[in-house]
């Protein structure tokens, strides 16, 4: 039972990233009809937002500390972060320690701006072009963004620690009434799963219960009719592109302590996320989330020792096998809508 629960937790952890990226992909496709192969790059840019903010918090100047001396007895020169100078040593140390969660506050406007810029500067010119053209141009954009990040941050992964309060592991077994120490699971992975749940719920509530969201859903169903009512639906769809970019960016920010940011991490998630979207059903937001968690759990179980011994390499292909089976039995995916990408 403990091994089963651990694999489910591992699956929910990875499935959270799949679901968040696939949710953003589906938002863009459902509103604009654009197949955005640059969406994985937005996930990567979000992670490097966290890297940048963390480095800015640690910008320092050199001061002489009279209380410390070197081996010759001379006062020691130490680096003083500006945040510690401005807010005091304790608050400054707290800001640096919590740089990853605090990066969310900066990543939201940055990623919205990046998303709106991409949509207005590039994507809008390909609305009426074939999906193949959209794929080529957005894939090219993803490569450009990847190389820009590589130029400024280098090719090596950049470790981003979680706050000290969440660096350890939780006795999850004792928490659910099992034997103590039977299930030990990292705090931050549980935090990431909870964060994904809050973010996904927020997006659905925004679309379901706000006037803006209701207009967007109406525009997704019948864009022309909404436009005839005098509503600038294009402007709202541009904002939705920015929101989708922010969702991908926030997923990247919070994933940095789990997977050290590197310039190709967006490509690592991109193909799998598109498989998630297809399995869930093109244009279906609930389908994207459901498929993300489902495939994450299946991949987790396929990575176990017994599964690898029975079918070597199954963890590398399980998602694609499931996609083949689902599409053979349900060509529109688990929750796909009729007429989406069927013309």
TrEMBL record:
Pfam families: BPD_transp_2. Keywords: Amino-acid transport, Cell membrane, Membrane, Transmembrane, Transmembrane helix, Transport. InterPro entries: ABC_transp_permease, BCAA_transport_permease. Its main location: membrane. The chain crosses the membrane at residues 17-35, 42-64, 91-114, 190-216, 237-258, 270-298, 310-328. It is found in: Cell membrane. It comes from the Bacteria. It is a multi-pass membrane protein. Belongs to the binding-protein-dependent transport system permease family. LivHM subfamily. This is Branched-chain amino acid ABC transporter permease. The lineage of its organism: Bacteria, Pseudomonadati, Pseudomonadota, Alphaproteobacteria, Hyphomicrobiales.
């Amino acid at each position: 039972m403990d091994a089963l629960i651990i694999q489910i937790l591992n699956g929910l952890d990875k499935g959270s990233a799949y679901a968040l990226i696939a949710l953003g992909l589906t938002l863009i496709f459902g509103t604009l009809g654009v197949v955005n192969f640059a969406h994985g790059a937005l996930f990567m840019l979000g992670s490097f937002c966290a890297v940048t903010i963390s480095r800015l918090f640690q910008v320092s100047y050199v001061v002489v500390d009279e209380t410390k001396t070197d081996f010759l007895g001379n006062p020691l020169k130490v680096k003083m972060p500006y945040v510690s100078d401005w807010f005091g040593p304790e608050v400054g140390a707290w800001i640096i320690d919590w740089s990853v969660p605090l990066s969310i506050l900066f990543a939201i406007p940055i990623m919205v701006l990046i998303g709106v810029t991409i949509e207005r500067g590039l994507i809008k010119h390909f609305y009426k072009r074939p999906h193949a053209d959209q794929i080529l141009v957005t894939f090219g954009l993803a490569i450009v963004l990847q190389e820009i990040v590589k130029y400024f941050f280098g090719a090596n992964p950049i470790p981003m620690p979680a706050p000290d309060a969440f660096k350890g592991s939780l006795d999850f077994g004792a928490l659910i009434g099992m034997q103590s120490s039977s299930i030990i699971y990292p705090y931050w992975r549980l935090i990431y799963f909870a964060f994904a749940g809050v973010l996904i719920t927020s997006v659905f509530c925004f679309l379901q219960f706000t006037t803006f969201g209701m207009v967007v859903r109406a525009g997704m169903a019948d864009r022309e009719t909404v436009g005839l009512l005098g509503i600038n639906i294009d402007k709202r769809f541009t904002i939705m592109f920015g929101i989708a970019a922010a969702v991908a960016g926030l997923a990247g920010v919070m994933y940095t302590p789990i997977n050290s940011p590197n310039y190709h991490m967006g490509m690592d998630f991109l193909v799998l996320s598109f498989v998630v979207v297809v399995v869930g059903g093109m244009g279906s937001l609930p389908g994207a989330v459901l498929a993300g968690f489902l495939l994450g759990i299946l991949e987790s179980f396929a990575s176990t020792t017994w599964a690898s011994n029975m079918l070597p390499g199954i963890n590398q292909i399980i998602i694609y096998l499931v996609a083949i089976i689902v599409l053979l039995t349900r060509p529109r995916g688990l929750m796909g809508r009729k007429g989406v990408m069927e013309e």
